[in-house]
Amino acid sequence: MSLKEEKEHIRKSIYDKLFNECQSLRPNGDYGKIPNFKGFDIAAELLASTDEWKNSKTVFCSPDSAQIPVRYIALKENKNIVMASPNLEHGYLYLEGNKLVGKEKEASTKEGAFEHCSKFFDFGGDSFDMAIDMVVEGSVGVDRLGNRIGKGKGFADREIEDLFNRNLISEETPLVTTIHPFQLVEYVPMESHDRKLNMIVTTDEIIRI
């Protein structure tokens, strides 16, 4: 089995388990997407209880549906959000928490983020002027060593690499994912360009790597 086939096998097994155990919030399952799982709000609340979160002022977050509660809590706490646009078609969106009081729920969605963002940044550009204190990415599967697998398009790896290249994050920056326990697997194969996470939050545990 090739590495690509092995990754696809892991994705399918996770998609199947979430669907068959009725843990997906999508009626037809999450196939080909970052899972939108039952308990995503619980995982977000657990993340928000950590010192890493409490010490963060600006959070980079993927646009995935499973991370809506992460974005909502961030805005409720007047944190700033840098959100990748879907497929990076519009670069990054910047949301200022202290300017969105009362609009946090709407602004935490993909559509609402476009409506309420303060500015856009180009992917690969140099127009950022703020530090990023935490990165939260969606995942299909992860293992306890921090190895991560996405939906296969490579966007998370590109985003993280871009932030490193701009010196907006460092090796000490929390690189986090929030997942359902079914997405935590024994082993995820990695390629040379893949970057490990250093923190995993499920609905019932926090894993620091």
What does this structure look like?
The chain has seven helices and ten strands. Helix 4 links the parallel strand 1 (58-61) and strand 2. The mean pLDDT is 91. The strands form two sheets. It has an eight-stranded mixed sheet with strand order 4-3-2-1-5-8-9-10, with helices on both faces. The two termini are 28 Å apart. The chain is an alpha/beta fold and 209 residues long. Helices cover 30% and strands 16% of the residues. The longest helix is centred in the first third of the chain and has 18 residues, at 3-20.
Q: Can you give me a brief rundown of this structure?
A:
The chain has 209 residues and is α/β, with parallel strands linked by helices. The protein has helices at residues 3-20, 40-48, 51-54, 68-76, 104-107, 110-116, 155-165, and strands spanning 58-61, 80-84, 92-95, 119-121, 134-137, 141-142, 148-149, 175-178, 199-201, 206-208. The strands form two sheets. It has an eight-stranded mixed sheet with strand order 4-3-2-1-5-8-9-10, with helices on both faces.
| Helix-and-strand structural type | alpha/beta
Q: Tell me how many strands there are.
A: 10
Count of discrete alpha- or pi-helical segments spanning 4 or more residues: 7
Q: What order do the strands of the largest sheet run in, or round the barrel if closed?
A: 4-3-2-1-5-8-9-10
Mean pLDDT: 91
Q: What about the largest sheet?
A: 8 strands, mixed
